[in-house]
Write a structure and sequence with these properties.
By secondary structure, this protein is mainly β. It has four domains: 110 residues, Immunoglobulin-like (Sandwich); 101 residues, Sandwich (Immunoglobulin-like); 91 residues, Immunoglobulins (Immunoglobulin-like, Sandwich), CATH 2.60.40.10; 105 residues, Immunoglobulin-like. Helices cover 0% and strands 43% of the residues. It has no helices and 33 strands. Strands 9, 10, 12, 14 and 15 form a five-stranded antiparallel beta sheet that branches. Strand 22 and strand 23 form a beta hairpin.
Amino acid sequence: MTNSLLVLAAVTLLMPQGRTEPVPSLPPDETITIRGVVTDRETGQALPRARVSVYSGVIDPKRPPVASTQTDDAGAYELAGLPRNAFYWVLAQPPPHVSTHLAQLYGFEGPFDPAAPLALRAKPLERVDFANANIPLARALAIEGRVLNDEGDPVAGMQVVLLRADLSSRRSAVRSTDDRGVFRHFGLAPGRYRICASAPSGGKPNALQSIRRTCYPASSTETLELGTTSIGGLDIRLTRGKAATIAGVVQDATGAVSDRPLIQFIENDDPSRTSLPVEQLPGGRFAIRDVEPGAYRLFAATPWGPDDRELRERVTIPVVVDRDIDNLVVRTRAAATISGLVTFETATPPEGATRIGVIARQDGPVFPIQPSRIGVIPAAVKSDSSFILHGVFQETRLGMIGLPKGWFVRSITYRGRDITDVPVDFEGPIDPHPITIVLTNRAAQIRGPDE
């Protein structure tokens, strides 16, 4: 009989401690046991008290794992009594409050990074038996340095933001400097980063001599490469200067001035994703004052009618601030309609395929109107496997809902390239390029010795 484990990825994970949910009581011949060793990837040394958890089916971060345990002094673990012929994925991570290693999904090459958008697709695995489901954990890395003022003295209480620059989510973390001006970001995976230091938010900056936000590397187009070893000894020297003012006007797609534009101005490195105050002026004009140098994104939208129940047009533009900007013209775009087909790798669609749907997730802030129009847009797949999505704006990611058990997205193709979990600016008002979504049940498998 064939035993199989489907290893999937999720954006967020619970951190279980010990067995959190009892495994169903089944006869021995209807269950499987997974055994292995958790080790340090570099040295091969066993890692005692590491947490190993098994999740099943569609991942719901609010639900506990099917089973979890801790490794013994030799780094060994055993998860017994799991129902056979089910789909699972296995996660190993260091003990609670230990940040020496990174979490790892069994069968994946790189460590699991909760900041990374991971597509729900299986990866090929070698045939192994359940007694050797070993999981090596990579060492966690750190970036450490000091924040100094313009005279070279250490500055305490500064906000230091670390941005993971090579992820489309661009998520970031914040630390504060201590009395020595020292900051330390730890528990990091290899990747490209950028570090920015500034005064804590909340206070109004001095218009003449405010502490200016300073980044490392200084250029917004450069990044810091974190490879196999931690980085230390970085010095970020703050400067002072006058904050900038951004002023402009919002126009619709025809070039006409928008009377009541909705505007949000968000710093790229801001982990809270909150907008700076925007002053609305007559004639569709706006002003954003006391803006520190850096990279920002401006979101503008024009609503339908007086009740603001639906967005008619929208646009997202990058803005690099290093001085005052007096006449920024922001032109919104009409929403797009996109369409395509959903296909299956097997000749016959699985049972339940008539209940699936396509969703469009749109990046950026949610304006305080009709969130479904700018957050998640669903569309049912018709009996002829076609779908149509209306009201799609910039930076949209496509996905699926209601998939039958054991099925997942293999690819989403648009204009000859795979856009699975990639934000796309579709053409409007009616995009002429069809989208093809391929679903599969050919999962990555771990096979036992009894097959």
